[in-house]
Amino acid sequence: MLFNFEAAPTLDLKGIQRSVTGYQLIGTKDRPGRVRGVEGLHSPMVGRDGELEQIKNSVMSMNRQSGGGFAMVFGEAGIGKSRLIAELKSRVRDESISVFEGHSLTYRRSVAYWIFLDLMRNYLGVSANAPEAQVRAQLANRVEAVLGNHAAEVIPYLEHLLSLKPTSTTAAARISQLDADQLRQQIFITVRDLFIAESKQQPVLLILDDLHWADDASLDLLRFMLDALQSAPLFICGISRPVDDGALTKIVEQAQNRLQEDCMRSSCKRKRLLRHRRSPDPRRTPRASRSPHPRLADGRGPPNAA
Ligand SMILES: Nc1ncnc2c1ncn2[C@@H]1O[C@H](COP(=O)(O)OP(=O)(O)OP(=O)(O)O)[C@@H](O)[C@H]1O
Ligand SMILES: [Mg+2]
Prior knowledge:
Number of domains: 2
CATH architecture of the largest domain: 3-Layer(aba) Sandwich
Bound molecules: adenosine-5'-triphosphate, magnesium ion
Order of helices and strands: EEHEHEHHHHHEHEHE
Number of strands: 7
CATH topology of the largest domain: Rossmann fold
Distance between the termini: 48 Å
Shape: globular
Helix content: 25-40%
Radius of gyration: 22 Å
Largest sheet: 5 strands, mixed
CATH class of the largest domain: Alpha Beta
Number of helices: 9
Structural class: alpha/beta
């Protein structure tokens, strides 16, 4: 857990000759601040125009007819993955695309669904420290705005996911009858359908950063969400350092296969989908030969690609 502190007046302590600076604990941090560079100082991005253009074109090409897409940015720590996607965000801001993001944290690896919890808080516009009543009210408002009459069916599962006190005791009793697999399945369907519904109002870009720290439940939910990309203008962009467990590599392969199948089924002319760059298994990639650039494995190539 990380904390916010505020400098307190200097203290004169018994037995210590010098005055000592004290700090007052303010509360927990939602997420770590910048770990590199200087807070508040930003230099222009250099040398990533090709990657940025490629991923931006992929995101911009999603629509109701052709569905969404998937991109995965792999690269070593500090190489500029998050920066690349931050630039992407600023480029699509004015393009009527809703952008929501979740971050994994190394010290949250033991919390199931952490990255989706973070994503949901971002979606609802609430901080990790927000009072429960505020989160519940925001959840009800947002889900009702998107799902209308169906909201009452899904809110109990989202409350459960977010560890909120249930609003409906009847629904809570029904959930308590489900076994673990059934509950997990319902949570998966609920999260997927919520973002599908959201994307039908306006295309959605979901950014999932630092997936190398994601817990298994989050990765399973991410894999489940891939089904939505064929039918809805929903684009998922994952970011990760090279990983050794292969779970993310499988997700990328699955995304490529799904989008490729869909493309062939609908006789889509975008042959570029058949030319995905495969993301090499990092286990077989010697460290020294790894690219100094973030590696893009995407489910939508640039529109002008052959
Ligand atoms: N192309 C670039 N031009 C200018 N600054 C850059 C560029 N790429 C990265 N930076 C800067 O380098 C620092 C590290 O980049 P970033 O945080 O994006 O790395 P990362 O790959 O996401 O690392 P990690 O795996 O630790 O999250 C940041 O301050 C970022 O603004
Ligand atoms: Mg990063």
